[in-house]
């Protein structure tokens, strides 16, 4: 790809001359002679096969091609300057800050933290929990791990890690457990279902996928966060609903059961990385998370 680009020195000389509309001022800014700027611009024009600058009195003016190249080159150099400034301010051994919802942090990420530290010691991973609605592009973290639905914003790099599957779960300690295990999904229409305000769409989505009318569902105790909802289910207080990844360890240990399985939603568990401040460590973390989710 680099062979398709002209000399960066020539582009830098042109960008300065085009921005300042002066060969002399461009030379002063870049600490080179007037002749050096002129030669670089001429070489760039010869390589591209178009005129970019024409003399205008004691200065220069842009051709149509020159205006187009100035706009793109100016924006690109500005972005490079901004990023380099950010990198200079960031210590080489700075921790990698990962933001994610508290339920995902507590029930999935923390149990795997020792393996992440072992396999990716260069991350020096620092976890940040958000109890409210996540703002992946403004949180200040290097990356955000969350369940979300496409389409994705243009200014973010999204690593899709796994599809989201949701399903009802209950503890063997729940009083209605013997009647519910082995029953059809419509048996839940008679239950006062546990629910959370952070995922109001979960039960209706599951009902529709199982041929049930969402309006026939009955809701009991509500919880502000998914983490509390699942702790209530583990305590035997009722039937909850959750993404499969967040209850995988509970299912494996027998603390919870999922008699009706899971149904896939349009959401994805994904790692969001703001494009303007992408850290190369994010790609290594995404690869680790992808393998972990695929193996378990």
TrEMBL record:
<dbReference type="GO" id="GO:0043565">
    <property type="term" value="F:sequence-specific DNA binding"/>
</dbReference>
<dbReference type="Pfam" id="PF00126">
    <property type="entry name" value="HTH_1"/>
</dbReference>
<comment type="similarity">
    <text>Belongs to the LysR transcriptional regulatory family.</text>
</comment>
<feature type="domain" description="HTH lysR-type">
    <location>
        <begin position="6"/>
        <end position="63"/>
    </location>
</feature>
<dbReference type="GO" id="GO:0006351">
    <property type="term" value="P:DNA-templated transcription"/>
</dbReference>
<keyword id="KW-0238">DNA-binding</keyword>
<dbReference type="InterPro" id="IPR005119">
    <property type="entry name" value="LysR_subst-bd"/>
</dbReference>
<dbReference type="InterPro" id="IPR036390">
    <property type="entry name" value="WH_DNA-bd_sf"/>
</dbReference>
<dbReference type="Pfam" id="PF03466">
    <property type="entry name" value="LysR_substrate"/>
</dbReference>
<dbReference type="GO" id="GO:0003700">
    <property type="term" value="F:DNA-binding transcription factor activity"/>
</dbReference>
<dbReference type="InterPro" id="IPR058163">
    <property type="entry name" value="LysR-type_TF_proteobact-type"/>
</dbReference>
<keyword id="KW-0804">Transcription</keyword>
<dbReference type="InterPro" id="IPR036388">
    <property type="entry name" value="WH-like_DNA-bd_sf"/>
</dbReference>
<protein>
    <submittedName>
        <fullName>LysR family transcriptional regulator</fullName>
    </submittedName>
</protein>
<keyword id="KW-0805">Transcription regulation</keyword>
<dbReference type="InterPro" id="IPR000847">
    <property type="entry name" value="LysR_HTH_N"/>
</dbReference>
